[in-house]
Amino acid sequence: MIRHVSRNGGRRIPFWRLLAIGTVAVGAATWASGQGRWAAALAAGGMTLSLASYLQDRRDNQASDIDVQAKGATFVLDQDDDGFYLQDCQRIRIQGATIRASRAMSGTGRIQAVASGGYKLVLDKPLPDGLSINWVRPMNEGSHTWPYSRVRAIFNPATTAQPTRIDSRTFQSSAFNVLPDKQFVSVKFAYYGGRGVYIRDSDTGTNDDITLDGVKIGSGKRSACFNPAGRRIPQTVPFC
C-alpha cells in the first residue's frame, strides 16, 4: 500500500486554520476589553504561527517523481480502507498493480420466478458471513461484462430492507421484480467499499500528472476516485 497524506489526514480542519480562527477570536475579545496593544501583539504572533503551520502542511502533502512498478503484484486490503491514497502529489505513476479486498465482496447469481408470484435471487455461491445483498444488476453471462441497462435492484442499508433470506444462496424481494426471469446477474455484497485508488486535492494544494497504467481493481473496491477540488480531470483509461 502507498499512502501519502498530510499529518491531519486531509479529513479534519487543518491546524493552521484552527490557530488562525482562535487568534482572531481571542484578539477580538482582548480588543473589546480595551487592551488594544495586547490584541495587536497577539494577532501578530498568532498569524505568524498560522503561516508557519500552513507552509509545513503544504510541504508534508507533496510527494513527487515516484514510479511504482507493480506488474504482477497484488495488494490485498484486509480492512475497508483506501489502497493508494495520493494527496497533493506530482508526477506519480502506478503501473500494473492489482488491488482487491481480502474476501469476496461480490458474486453472481440468477433471478428466478416464484410459483406463488414474484422473483427470487439464487446465488452461485453462498453469501459470505457478515455480508449482505446490496446491488443486483444484469450481467452478460459469457463475458462477465455489463450490458447497457439502468435496470437494477438496490438495497440501501439506510433506507431499504434486506431481501428475505430463504437459505445461504436464496433471497426473495419485490425489488427483484424489475429483473426478468432467468436473468444472470452480478451481486455486490457491500453498498460501498473502500476506494482502490483515491486521488485527492486538499485545500492547500493539488495533484498533477498522476498516471495509472494497467491498474486492476477487484472485488469490493470502488475503482478510482478523484476529488479534484473543483478542477476538471480527464479520465482516459478505463478501470476494472
Produce the secondary structure layout:
Blueprint: E1 3-4, H1 15-32, H2 36-61, E2 64-69, E3 74-77, E4 84-87, E5 90-95, E6 98-101, E7 106-113, E8 119-123, E9 135-138, E10 153-154, E11 164-165, E12 170-172, E13 184-188, E14 197-200, E15 208-213, E16 216-217, E17 224-227
Parallel strand pairs: 1-4, 2-5, 3-6, 4-14, 5-15, 6-16, 14-17
Antiparallel strand pairs: 7-8, 7-13, 8-12, 9-10, 9-13, 11-12
Helix pairs in contact: 1-2
Q: What is the C-alpha radius of gyration, as a whole number of Å? A: 25 Å
> What structural class do you assign from the helix and strand content?
alpha/beta
Q: List segments where confidence is low: pLDDT < 50 over at least 5 consecutive residues.
A: 1-13, 236-240
Largest sheet: 7 strands, antiparallel
Number of individual domains:
3
* Basic shape: elongated
Describe this structure in words.
The structure is a single chain. This protein has 240 residues and is of the alpha/beta class. The protein folds into three domains: 15-59; 64-101 and 193-227, no CATH class; 108-186, no CATH class. It is built from two helices and 17 strands. It has helices at residues 15-32, 36-61, and strands spanning 3-4, 64-69, 74-77, 84-87, 90-95, 98-101, 106-113, 119-123, 135-138, 153-154, 164-165, 170-172, 184-188, 197-200, 208-213, 216-217, 224-227. The strands form four sheets. Strands 10-9-13-7-8-12-11 form a seven-stranded antiparallel β-sheet, with no helix packed on it. Helix 1 packs antiparallel against helix 2 (36-61). It is elongated, with a radius of gyration of 25 Å. Mean pLDDT is 75; it is low at 1-13 and 236-240.
